[in-house]
Amino acid sequence: MKNGQWYCNGGVYMDHVVAAGISQGQGAPILSDIQSCVLKDISWVIPDAAWSDHPGESQGTPPYGPSWVGDIVDAVGSATNCDGTGYWNDTAIFIVWDDWGGWFDHVTPPDVYRSTSATSCPTSVQPNGWGCGYVYGFRVPLLVVSAYTKAGYVSGACSSITCNNNKFPYQRDFGSILAFIEYNFGMQQIAPPFYADANALDGAKGNIPLSDFFSLSNQRSFTNINTSYNAQFFEDYYANGHTPAGPDGGPDD
Q1: What pLDDT, in 10s, does the model give residues 8-22?
Q2: What b/e sequence results for 99-116 when a residue is b if at least 16 CB atoms lie within 10 Å of its CB, and e otherwise?
Q3: How far apart are CA 78 and CA 100, in angstroms?
Q4: Residue 145: in which H helix or E strand, if any?
Q5: In a 3-state reduction of DSSP, which class is residue 21?
Q6: Is there a smaller number of Cβ atoms within 10 Å at the N or the C end of the chain?
Q7: Is the distance from CB of 71 to CB of 229 less than 8 angstroms?
Q8: 28 with 231: CB under 8 angstroms?
Q9: Does residue 28 contact residue 20 with C-beta atoms inside 8 Å?
Q10: Using CA atoms, how far apart are residues 189 and 130, in angstroms rounded to an integer?
Q11: Phi then psi dihedrals of residue 189, to 5 deg
């Protein structure tokens, strides 16, 4: 955004990005898409700054963030008239954060290649030659919600903090989500071996990234999440006088 206005007007952006705001007359398009049974096969959802879990951003007590996430999950689980049977039985929801929370991390990030050239990413350098030094830092949380994910399942769980649980196939990165999408929809990778999808840590040895979260023999019914702020609150948010802000704060993000 720039001065409170959306300024990207390229063809691909206009066709595939829905930027909610006052001028659009809608606060949470993902919720209305689900309710109207027009949810896209792949949707990447980014919250307003006030709806995020960034410290000091939320104006609500309790914070808006948990309700925003919970309302999206509830909308998917309760949309029983969409696609014949509803969205719950054929939808996977990946919930991630972009910050690590400020706590000490006992797992060392993988090594990365450091290059003095902005165009040099030699694949001969392992394990992460593709990244040119800007790849891994502190880990961030990942929650997987689906009808086929076992309740309480922790990927790579171990009994001790020293059991080195960061090994394949339980070490993820954001490329894992992209690689899972590509596998699920029969899509080609972007341009292997240079991008994150081809270098997803849990995609080694032919493993399907994130696949341990799912079991077709473990189908579960949906359980509603009780939230402090309902879906209508977010849909009416901008109409009630609030100004849209990027997820990292400020109208120019």
Answers
A1: 677 777 777 777 665
A2: eeeeeeeeeeeeebbeee
A3: 31
A4: strand 142-145
A5: strand
A6: C
A7: yes
A8: yes
A9: yes
A10: 14
A11: -70, 160
